Amino acid sequence: MMEHGIPFRLNARVRRLVAPNPGRMTGPGTNTYLIGNDEVAVLDPGPAIPEHIEAILQAGEGRIRWIVCTHTHPDHSPAWQAVAEASGAEVIGAPPADDMFQDETFKPTKEIQHDDVLRTPEFTLRAVHTPGHVSNHYCFFLEEEQMMFAGDHIMNGSTVVIIPPSGNMKAYIESLQLLLKYPLKLIAPGHGDVMEDSAAVVEWLVNHRLAREAKVLKGLRGLKNTSLDELVAVVYDDVDVSLHQMAKLSLEAHLIKLETENSASHNSESDLWKSL
Q1: Rounded to whole angstroms, how far apart are CA atoms 232 and 42?
Q2: What would the pLDDT profile of 122-170 be if each residue is shown by its tens digit?
Q3: CATH fold label, 208-275
Q4: Fold of 8-196
C-alpha cells in the first residue's frame, strides 16, 4: 500500500513520500525520495500541492540541504520552489527541455552534468544522463545501496511515453542499455514501487521497445503511405484506445528513429509515413 503523505522507509538511507496526484499517467502518485538522515536530499519534490510540500518539510525536519530533480515535467519538479524557499536548499537539475509539458518555473542553482556526484558522510549520489523520455532527464545512482532513482526513465506498472522533439527513442534505448553498466540491485521509479532484479527489468524494457519497433515497421509495410492516426491503431492494438493520443507521441519517436536509420521516410507536405 502506497499511502500519500506518510514517509515510508525503504532502507537505512532512503525514505519515500508519495504525492497525492494519482492517475492514469502517474499511477499511485509521484514518488518523492528523501535521501540521508543527518543531511537530507529531496529527490523529485513533485507537484506543488500544499499538503505534499508540508509533508516533505515535516519529514525533512529542518535538515533538507539539497533538492534534486530527475527532469522537469509538472508532476516531478514544481514543488522545488516552495521547498527551497522554506529550507534554503541547493537546487540541482537540468533546465527545462524545449518540449511540451515542462515546468518552466524550474531554475537550478547547480546545473547537473553526467557523472556529477553529490557526496556526504552518509551517501554518494551519482548523476546518470538518461535522455529519451525527454532530453533533460537524469537518473541518480545511490552507490551505497546500489539503488537507481529512475524518475520517468523506468516506471513500475507501465511503460514510459517518449515525447518528441526533446524525447528520442534511439536515445531512450541507448540510455536503458547504459544503466546495465552500473552495479544495480534496485530501481526506485518515479511512479510505483521499488523494483528488484534490475538487470532483468532493463533488458525486458529494451526488448519491449524493439518489439514495438518491429510492429511499427510491419504496420508501415502493410499500410503503405499512412498517417499517425492510422498507424497508431495498428501498432498499439494491444493498448486501450483512450491512450492512443499519448501513444502517438511514442509512435512518432519510433518513426523518427527509423527515419534516422533509413528504414522509414516522412512526407512533410502530406504528413504521411512509409517504409523504405
Answers
A1: 38
A2: 999 999 999 999 999 999 999 999 999 999 999 997 888 898 888 889 9
A3: Arc Repressor Mutant, subunit A (1.10.10)
A4: Metallo-beta-lactamase; Chain A (3.60.15)
